[in-house]
Amino acid sequence: MSSESLAAPDKSGGLLDVLRRRDLLRLIVRKELKVRYRSSVLGLLWSYVRPGVQFLVFYFALGVFLGLNKQPNFVIYMFSGIILVNFFSEAFGQATRSVVANGALVKKIYLPRELFPVASVWVAIVHFLPQFLILLAACFFFGWTPGFGQLMGAVGAFVMVTMLSLGLGLLFAAANVLFRDSENIVDLMLMMATWLSPVLYAWYLVRDTLGETFYFFYQLNPMTIAVELFHAAFWSPTAAVRNAPEGARLPDNLLSLWLPVGLVISLLILMLGQSVFRRLEGRFAQEL
After folding, report:
1. pLDDT computed for residue 1 by the predictor
2. Which intervals hold domain ABC transmembrane type-2 (predicted)?
């Protein structure tokens, strides 16, 4: 065997190795789900309980008490944003902790370390799907008739959030091995995630209150773009919104401009996260 075919055991092919080890990824995802719901009575039903309670709190606090439910189909508007932010929060948060949580495996055997953050994102997808089905059922109940472009926008939004959460997860998972304060930083970021995107309020309030300059930078947030795309796909095609005198107020050029911008920014963050992760992964076993 030539020396050119040998590779250092602490080097990997990055996310490409995850594709080559799909069977191992499947085992890790299954293990994560079993560990999370071990000795649990409700099991996977907890993926309904948390967003359900969160929805009720926001609906009564903001919709009923503050009167925001005067907006047509406010339930759909709010829930379509909540499930997307919850997916991002779980994927990013669990990916950040994934390498440290699997420290015993990292120290004992060699395997692509990217498997752990990717598995965390897959587990978040498993929890996202039941919530998404509930959203679809509610949309049909409210007379949902989407167009092809709106559905493609929703697919693009999901891809955008997946790349963003994985990229940030890889970046902070590597940092968390060296500096455990990273978990606290991520917790602060996730605490602000719901309020930095138009989940519970209308996007134009930011523009009208803080001006066009601030709004431009606010709009560069991929989560903002993704939530707006979900609103365009699931809220604006409902009957009450279509028939409202002012219709659905959505940002200009949402599909033609902001969708490509959000995808590019998310891809750049994914590439940055992978680069930092690969640079630091050789120190993981030693630091853990």
Report:
1. 42
2. 42-280
* Among candidate residues 103, 116, 162, the one with its CA nearest the CA of residue 12: 116
Residue 8, pLDDT > 60, answer no
The answer for residues whose C-beta is within 8 angstroms of residue 101's C-beta and 6 or more apart is 116
Of residues 170 and 25, the one with the higher pLDDT is: 170
Chain length of the chain? 288
**Per-residue pLDDT at 120:** 92
Listed as own residue / partner, the contacts of 238-246 with beta carbons closer than 8 Å and 24 or more positions apart are 238/72, 238/73, 238/76, 238/139, 238/142, 238/143, 238/144, 239/142, 239/143, 239/144, 239/145, 240/72, 240/73, 240/142, 240/143, 241/72, 241/73, 242/145, 244/72
- Residue 261: count other Cβ atoms within 10 Å of its Cβ: 15
- The region of weakest confidence among 11-15, 88-92, 152-156 is 11-15
The answer for residues whose C-beta is within 8 angstroms of residue 65's C-beta and 6 or more apart is: none
Q: Which long-range contacts (CB under 8 A, 24 or more apart) does 117-120 make?
A: 117/166, 117/169, 117/170, 117/173, 117/277, 118/15, 118/18, 118/25, 118/166, 119/25, 119/28, 119/29, 119/32, 120/32, 120/91, 120/94, 120/95, 120/169
pLDDT of residue 6: 47
Taking residues 98-105, report their average pLDDT: 85
- Among 121, 120, 123, 103, smallest CA distance to 111 is for 103
